[in-house]
Design goal:
- This protein is 51% helix and 10% strand.
- Helix 4 packs across helix 14 and helix 7 crosses helix 8.
- The two termini are 35 Å apart.
- It has 3 domains: 52 residues, no CATH class; 82 residues, Endonuclease Iii, domain 2 (Orthogonal Bundle); 105 residues, Endonuclease III, domain 1 (Orthogonal Bundle), CATH 1.10.340.30.
- It has 259 residues and is α+β, with helices and mostly antiparallel strands.
- It contains 14 helices and 5 strands.
Amino acid sequence: MRLGAKDFDLASTVESGQLFRWSKEGDGYRIAHRDKSFFVSQEGDFLEFSGVTAAFLTSFFGLDVDYAAIKRKLSKDAMLRTAIKAYPGIHIVRQDPWECTVSFLCSSFSNIKKIQLNLRKLTECFGESGAFPCPGDIDDHPRIKSCSTGYRSKYIFEANKLVDDRSLNALKRLPYAEAKARLMELPGIGEKVADCICLFSLDKTEAFPVDVWIKRVIEELYFEGKSMKERDVRDFAKQRWGALAGYAQQYLYHWRRTL
């Protein structure tokens, strides 16, 4: 099937550290997310895809969002304009909150390849037919640890007992600060992980996850290399970009990481 995707770049979106259950396949990507597995490739302003509906893909990749307007606003910032020009087609992916939560619990002091390994093993151990396991199903701590999750295993095990799809999806209806606070009540979820979940699965575009890359690029571009606290970086982003801070974060993150 074929879907229009103007102002969108599949490769930079998939490979920008938002989601992890994907692999290169020919001229496109095989992506697994929750109970879906689909293939998608891009030719110009069109996506060729199979395995899901056009409606799902439109929502998943944010093809219904006016990115041209977002970039016009953010490009008023001369520093940010460079990152936007480098990767103008990056979109924020709308993920399933549960898979996103487990993914970023695995992300603490890790890297993309290790997170991909963790999620593949968790799916093999606890899922069915390649589907990501549902809340309540990742219920054996020793087996979770055998999925190369290390100390993160206890946090995944506890989160599995404390949330379900309904409670996570309900966070979408809360204001950003309240949704983030609820997430941080879960073991192992600090500011950065909570902000990732808010941005990549709860439509909280004001969320600004701060990791080493983002801290470094903000210090370099806006503070002449002066060392900052993570809290101050988040406050700066909130004041400078407001409800668009999450978009700014993704442009800056992928640009700085690929320099």
